[in-house]
Design brief:
Layout: E1 5-7, E2 14-16, H1 30-34, E3 36-37, E4 49-50, H2 51-63, H3 72-75, H4 93-103, H5 105-122, H6 127-148, H7 152-157, H8 160-170, E5 182-185, E6 198-205, E7 209-214, H9 221-231, E8 244-248, E9 252-263, H10 284-287, E10 293-296, E11 299-302, H11 306-309, E12 319-330, H12 334-340, E13 344-347, H13 351-356, H14 362-368
Parallel strand pairs: 8-12
Antiparallel strand pairs: 1-2, 3-4, 5-6, 5-13, 6-7, 7-12, 9-11, 9-12, 10-11
Helix pairs in contact: 6-12
Pfam family, one: RINGv
Organism: Ceratopteris richardii (Triangle waterfern)
InterPro entries: AlgH-like (IPR003774), Znf_RING-CH (IPR011016), Znf_RING/FYVE/PHD (IPR013083)
């Protein structure tokens, strides 16, 4: 062995000694990597090692261990227990991420197997229901999304063409939900309250929600008695109460009420040529002018019962008055989602059915259609 040469304790090859201070080494220069250095306090045959051999050994030690494991063997000499003066190279971020994933591949696979087993054991039989709920959630998010950006003012003020484009873009326009629309509950309706019900929408704004009245649900006798006692001071003829039917309009605010008035010869249906015009006195439009908003031809919704009370004569059979206690309400996008899921069937221009069908037969007639 020539003077100034020593043996590498890793590869056992002889080389010239490098600089005493490892800080003077340039990692980009190959000759420096081939020189021997003394990275720790070892002496004798363990004193020297090639710079490149030490780096290669440190890299091998680090790659064989998990990221969270103890890396001291690559940092500290196991002979003299002193810290190496040459720090190991830090791998790139992508390499570290990939290494972490591969090192924990068995654990990740095991976790996935356990989760799948739990799912199959607890909810596998309801997979169809879960997929339906997921789909309805996505549809609801799609409907609510434009409202979250305050498009309400745009919808109220924009031209009809622009609004129709917005409606077709986000899907609600195809359902044509509007005041006067009938909602017929399908057999898939999960709610016990709304199962077998028919609802008349009287308010619908895409970014404000919807309100409606159940037309075919009976009201409690106690609620009817309370209402009649409250109205007694305004009634001169108690027999007038016999003209008014009662029903439950919805689960919300049942202390409140609205009156649904129906007449086949009133409002926009008023005409001298109408087959029932002979059954009423005077103009049908004047007869119904105080009945409230005409949601559909011949179907009026209001809150004033005095027009019914002031008429002491017996009314013809073409007149129908129904007090509905409470109302139904849907938040933004909820009704749209329920219709898309098949819980409701919509019916437009249902004036003729409402005027000719008793409330308790409405659902059976409409569901057959």
């Amino acid at each position: 062995m020539a003077e100034g040469e020593e043996t590498c304790r890793i590869c056992l090859e002889t080389s010239s000694l490098g600089p005493v201070s490892t800080s003077k080494l340039s990692e980009s220069l190959i000759p420096d990597e081939d020189r021997l250095i003394s990275p720790c306090a070892c002496s004798g045959t363990q004193a020297f090692v090639h710079f490149k051999c030490l780096r290669k050994w440190q890299t091998a030690v680090m790659s064989s261990r998990r990221p969270s494991a103890n890396l001291s063997p690559a940092l500290i000499c196991s002979v003299c227990t002193q810290k190496f003066s040459v720090a190991p190279l830090r791998p790139a971020l992508v390499v570290r991420i990939w290494k972490s994933l591969t090192n924990y591949s068995y654990e990740v696979a095991g976790l996935c197997i356990v989760l799948c087993a739990c799912y199959l054991a607890l909810a596998g039989h309801n997979l169809h229901s879960l997929l339906e709920e997921l789909g309805s959630g996505l549809m609801l998010a799609r409907e609510v999304f434009p409202c979250s950006f305050q498009f309400t003012a745009l919808e109220d003020k924009c031209s009809s063409r622009t609004c129709s484009l917005i409606g077709s873009r986000w899907g609600s326009g195809r359902l044509n939900l509007q005041p006067g629309t009938l909602l017929v509950a399908t057999p898939a309706m999960p709610s016990p309250f709304f199962f077998g019900s028919v609802v008349l929408l009287y308010e619908h704004k895409r970014c404000s929600g919807s309100r409606g009245l159940v037309l075919n649900m009976q009201s409690e006798e106690q609620r009817i008695s309370e209402w009649e006692k409250k109205m007694a001071p305004a009634i001169s003829n108690p027999s007038v109460l016999g003209r008014i039917a009662h029903g439950t309009g919805g689960p919300l605010a049942q202390h409140d009420w609205m009156m649904l008035n129906r007449c086949a010869c009133c409002g926009s249906l008023s005409s001298k040529d109408s087959p029932c015009s002979s059954q009423i006195e005077g103009d049908g439009k004047l007869y119904s002018k105080d009945w409230g908003q005409e949601l559909l031809p011949g179907v009026f919704l209001g809150r004033d019962v005095s027009p019914v009370f002031v008429r002491s004569k017996e009314e013809p059979a073409i007149f129908s008055h129904q007090v509905l206690h409470g109302h139904a309400e849907w938040f933004v996008g909820q009704l749209w989602s329920e219709v898309k899921r098949g819980l409701w069937v919509t019916k437009q221009n249902a004036s003729e059915i409402l005027l000719s069908t008793p409330p308790h037969e409405l659902w059976h007639v409409l569901i057959r259609e």
